[in-house]
Amino acid sequence: MSVLPFDQREGVIWYNGEFVPWEQATLHVLSHGLHYGSGVFEGERAYGGEIFRLTEHTQRLFKSAETLDMEIPYTVEEIDEACRETLVRQGLVDAYIRPVAWRGSEMMGVSAQTTRINVAIAAWEWPAYFDPAQRLKGIRLDMSEWRRPDPRTAPCHAKAVGLYMICTLSKHAAEKKGYADALMLDWRGQVAEATGANVFFVRDGELHTPTPDCFLDGITRQTVMELARNRQIKIHERAIMPEEMEGFEQCFIVGTAAEVTPVSEIGPYRFEVGEITKTLMNDYTAAVRPQAAAAE
After folding, report:
1. Which of 159, 176, 234, 278 is catalytic?
2. Which among 145, 147, 169, 231 would be 20 to 30 A from 215, CA to CA?
3. Tens-place pLDDT, residues 273-289
């Protein structure tokens, strides 16, 4: 299937405070963010013209930037408004929104204290992250050889560009084997997350999910936990060892792109797409599309 490259698409991108034609939203090859990973980003989704939990995403963008010693030269309110306007100018209703901030090309070296912090926001139509037919049956995950790092070795709670290198490697390896994604352990050998989504397991009507002490506590993860509590579903947030997966009945991953996606297989472990998974899938859809839910 041919996919139009992202540098050849039409429309506008918000770039350092103004809208520029899509093809002109470029950066220099010697930008610090490209060479040293000094960049942060967000992934947001719009449903029916409304960006879900927009301000929470923007606040996390600012927190990630602060963690990387970057000061975004705008306010949270200004970035929120720029995201909304980008969506409108692109003529989109259901879409993916990508704010990104990075160090520019004023300095080239490890030290980059006087580089400009650039900010851009793009929006585009977002197809299903996983094959829709496969998603309903539960996707298959490989076990990644790469592990989430010790918090003492990387800014693991920032949504920083450099932290996704091992996610790309893990997903590439999984896809080459015919899997949809990969599950990553952490440096201790505990279950952590998928390459771009948090993970939940179900046993005896209760949820079990890894404590996010070395990876992002995703906004979708927080939303799903709220939905589960509304259903009086008990949640165990704890360390989970991989061999425990043999005793879980259901599994699903959650994220802005993945939403709530059932998992049927992780390496040697098998799961059913059960009622709790289906219920939370439906509850999440109702949460992100309240107008549609009200109409029904």
Report:
1. 159
2. 231
3. 999 999 999 999 999 98
